[in-house]
Amino acid sequence: MSSSLKGKRALIFGVASDDSIAWAIAQELAAHGATCVMGYQKRFLSRVLQLFKDKPWIEGYLECDVATEESVAGFFQQAAQKHPGNFDMMVHAIGFAPATALQDEVVRTTEADWNTALTVSSYSLVRLTRHTMPVMNAGGAILSLTYLGADRFVPGYRVMSAAKAALQELNRELAYTCGREKQVRVNTISAGPIRTLAGSGVPGFSTILDWMKHASPLARNVNQVDVAKSAYFLLSDLASGVTGQLLYVDAGYSIMGVPPDLDKLLGQAAAGTPPAPPTTPAAPTPASSPASAGPRAQPLIFGQKK
Length: 306
Ligand code: NAP
Fold this sequence. Notes:
2 domains, 10 helices, disordered C terminus, single chain
């Protein structure tokens, strides 16, 4: 068993900028000797070309929109021609929901926005895995990225919560199928909030970052490198017996049952001060709420837009 990735090849989907988690993972795999073929979305072509320039460990990059079967099939056809040979790893670091779905309560999500979010963020793992398996070496590994909003209610994460919950279930389904078929392992990392293009699209993201730093056991946020190191573990032989698992890389935030300094927060609530992490402004509360109501959330109004 070796932790070196020398001679191993990875397919990486989800690099949009140098802040992307996928970019950190690709660099970590390369640092251990792997080479990568990248899938990119056309709209950020100039940005990713700049990023991919002069990186000898990048074998090539091909356009891939996971929303359509034609685009993914085209990616794999071109990869077979331009970068032939089998792969050992596949990274799915893709998430997307239309802005209209993120700006409103889930109860008002349109069917079209729901379908887009779940196709791009969840079904795409099935699609990419189906196309990857024929060119995956036995003993290879697949990795996706998820978020705590799949397990618990996170205000603002909205339709993405359902999309990530579906992804986490697919992680188990695919682990069984790919394991039986080819000894391929499939795992997912639940990353803490990190400022990226996708992350910044979540309403209230800065407050979530502040709160996590305040409340997590490590009293800090995680970054792309934290996630990339765990990704390397799961994608390498170091995790040879690990499949179908969800690994939290979140500075421990997910273990917390109640916030630290709960007594202080309750004291603030009793005094009518909305609880908030110390470094951030409090979330807006309806002016009409009685001060004695304690911690207050935005009410969900059915049938009528607030
Ligand atoms: P990011 O840099 O914006 O990466 C998201 C990627 O998804 C982008 O490369 C984006 O490409 C791609 N994508 C969206 N629609 C696509 C499509 N139709 N076809 C192909 N690619 C598409 O953000 P990130 O934070 O690194 O996100 C990576 C993964 O980590 C996502 O699954 C995300 O949900 C997950 N995650 C993020 C956080 C966080 O706080 N940042 C926390 C937990 C989990 P375009 O931008 O070109 O569309």
